[in-house]
Amino acid sequence: MHILKAITFVAVAAAVAGCGGGKTTSTTAAVAQPTTEAQREAAALPQVAVATVPGDLKCGAVKPVWVNIHSKAYHEAGDPYYGLTKNGKYMCPSEAAAQGYHAAGMQTHHKKQAAAATSTPGP
C-alpha cells in the first residue's frame, strides 16, 4: 500500500511541476519583426524626435546632412540615423566634406577594399 501511495505522490508531483506548479501564465501575441535592413535599422533607433534643422542654415537647393561629431560621418536625408545620433548637428554637405566628414558607411567600405587589395591569393 505504501508503494502505491508513493507512486501516486510522485506522479502528481511530476504533473504539477510539469505544468508550472499550477501557476497561470499570460501569453502575448507575437510582434511582427522588421524584414528589410532599413526596417531593422529604424526599429533599432531610440524612439525620439528628429532634431529640427536650424532656420539660419542655408545650403541652397541641397538638403543639409546630419553629421556625427564623434565618428566624423554624415547622414543624408532619408537615412534612418538622419537627425537622430546623440552627438550631431546639421551642416551643408560641402561644409561637412571640407571639415573631413565622410558619408556614413564609407569608412568601413574603404577598409574592406584596402584589405582585399593587400591580400594575396592562395597557391
Distance between the termini: 78 Å
Oligomeric status: single chain
Number of helical regions: 4
Number of strands: 4
Q: Provide the helix percentage.
A: 25-40%
Largest beta-sheet details:
4 strands, mixed
Task: Sum up the overall morphology in one term.
Answer: elongated
- How are the strands of the largest sheet arranged? 3-1-2-4
Mean pLDDT across all amino acids: 74
Which spans have pLDDT < 50 for at least 5 consecutive residues? none
Q: What is the percentage of strand-forming residues? A: 5-15%
* CA radius of gyration: 29 Å
Which structural class should the secondary elements be placed in? alpha+beta
Order of helices and strands: HHEEEHEH
Could you explain the architecture of this structure?
- The chain is built from 4 helices and 4 strands, in the order ααβββαβα.
- The chain has helices spanning 2-18, 37-44, 93-98, 106-118, and strands at 65-68, 73-75, 88-91, 102-103.
